[in-house]
Every structure is written in C-alpha cells, then in structure tokens.
Give the backbone structure.
Amino acid sequence: MASYSFITHWRFNAPIERVWHVLNTPEDYPDWWPCLVSYRKLTPCLAGVGAKGERVVKGRLPYTLRYVTTVTKYDPPREVAYDAEGELQGHGRFVLETEGAGTRVTFFWDVTTTGYWLNLLAPLLKWLFAKNHNWVMEEGRKGWRHDLRRSSRTGCGPRRRDREQVRGRSARGRPDAVDERSQFGPFVLGLAARRQEEAIA
C-alpha cells in the first residue's frame, strides 16, 4: 500500500466556536464542500468518541475514495481526531487555535491507500495523487470560508439543502464509483506515458 502524510493549514476570520460548529457538523459537508460527494452517519445517536461516519470523496481525477471514520478524540472546540478504514486507512486530526480575532485550523492526515490502481500506479503517479488531495483540501477551505461568511451575514448556521436534491445532483453530475474506477486505469496509464515521452524528449 502507498502511504501519504499531509499537513494542511487554514485560517478563518471567525471565532473558534463558529469554526468548530461547521467542523462538528459533518453531515453538512456536502452542502459547502463539493469534493465530498456524500456523508452518512453510521451512529446517529452517538456524538464524540466512537461516532462513525461514511465519507465519499472525489477530486479532479476520475476516481472516488470511500472510507469510514471513527472518532477517537473529541475536545471541543479545540481538537477532533479519528481513524479511517476502507479505501483510505489511517488517522486524521483537526486542531483549532485562536489566532487574533480569527481561528487557525491545522489538519493532519496520515493514510495508506488500499485500491488496486492507486497502489499499482503510486510509484509513477504518487505526485499526482498528492496534488489531487491538495486540490480537494483547497476546495474545502474555500467552501468553509464562504459558509462562515454567509452564516455571519444571515445569523444562521450552515446552510442545509434538501437531501434529495443533493443526491440528485451527485447522481446526475458524477459517474458512480464503479464507472470511475473502470475509467481510471486507461486515464493514468496514458498520462504516465505522456510524462515519460516528455522526459525522453
């Protein structure tokens, strides 16, 4: 399996309690984070340590990653950590710190991939998979910032769209995971061939 370690830093012009509220409502992530195709609570009656959720994430490349998170540390409004199992396995941790009038968020993500194509092509394309992750996180930062600004203007919490509409948009706008994986092999093999030709030239 291919291993990855990422550290992402974000800063928001909002108090830590508001930033934590958005972070602590993962079922709303698909409303403002376009790369998070879906989130499903697996323990709806449990919050904090032990809470489980299934996430499906898609970046720019033609594949999705489905994994289940289990909260292992819960210290509002400062820190939440979780384990991941599925097509990503490892550990994630969000740390929030007050910085002036705003909030600094640091995300630690140490995972390995379990998918056949991702592992087979990691020696050639690990740089591309890492770039895809960074793009996903940047989309999250922009969406999170926009949602905080919107809630600041309206005095409301994070926007909740109709779930049927969200599912319908995802179904119409994105191929399902099986189709994406079937397209992934030819796509990355062609990309790798082009990079090799460029290097020879």
